Amino acid sequence: MDLEFLENGPAVVISGDERVLVVADLHFGIESDLDRHGIHVPSRSDERLERVMTCVRSAEPDLILLLGDVKHTVPGTTRQEFLELPGILRALRSETVVRVVPGNHDPGIARFLHERELLPAAGTVIDGVAYLHGHTAPPPEAIGRLVVAGHHHPVASLRDSIGCSLRAPAYLLGEADEKALDVARNDQSGKGNTRVLLVPAFNEYAGYDLLLTMKKPFSPLSRCIKKESAEVFLADGTYVCRLGELVPDERDAET
Length: 255
Known about the structure:
Mean pLDDT: 91
Strand content: 25-35%
CATH class: Alpha Beta
Structural class: alpha/beta
Largest sheet: 9 strands, mixed
Low-confidence stretches: none
CATH topology: Purple Acid Phosphatase, chain A, domain 2
Number of helices: 5
CATH architecture: 4-Layer Sandwich
Order of helices and strands: EEEHHEHEEEEEEHEEHEE
Helix content: 10-25%
Radius of gyration: 18 Å
Number of domains: 1
Distance between the termini: 38 Å
C-alpha cells in the first residue's frame, strides 16, 4: 500500500490493487451558511470543483472517494446545494468512478447520487483500507487496519523562534489505543495494530487546530489516537514532527 499526498488538494491517493483518490469535507454550500451569519461571500464551488478535477486528472485514480460532508447544511438542503450538487457530481462522474461515505452534514445526499455510489454511513473497506467520515466509532471490520477519516479538519500551527507562525492543512497519522477503541465500540474484539490517518478538509474555509483536537477530542476516533506517538505531515506529505512537539498557537493558549 502506497500513499501519495496531493498538495493542490489537500487530497491523498492510496494505492494497492486500486488507486483510490480520497477527498474529505468539501462542504459545498458553505457560502449560504456564512451568509446567514452575516458573512457575505460569493460561491466558490466552481473553483473548489476545479481543484478536485485537477487532482483527479493528475492522479488518474480508479475511483474518487468523497469521505463525508460533501454538502454543508444540516438539517436540510439549501437552494445553493440543490442548484450546484448535480453539476458537481456530473463533472466528477465524467472523469472517474464516484463513491461517497456520508458524513454528519450529508443527510439528503442520496437524492443526488446514482445507484451504488452511496456507501454505508458506518464506513467501508476498500483494498484492505478502512474509510469512514470520522464522527462515529469505527465498525468491526476497520479494526486492525489503516483507518482513513475526515471530519476533524486538521490544521497545524508552526511557529519559529521569533513567534512567526504558519497555519496549514495537515495530516495526522497515529496508532490507535486498542482499549480505547474497545470502549468506543462497546466491544472486546482486540484485533490490534489499528492505525488512523486524519485527512484535512478540502474546503478552504474549514480548519481546526490539531492540538485543540487532541486536547479536547470531539469524536470516538480522535479519543482513541495515541497522542505521544502521532505524527504530523503537511499537505504535500512533508514530515513536520510528532504531535507533542508542536508549539501551541497563542490564540489557542487559553482555549
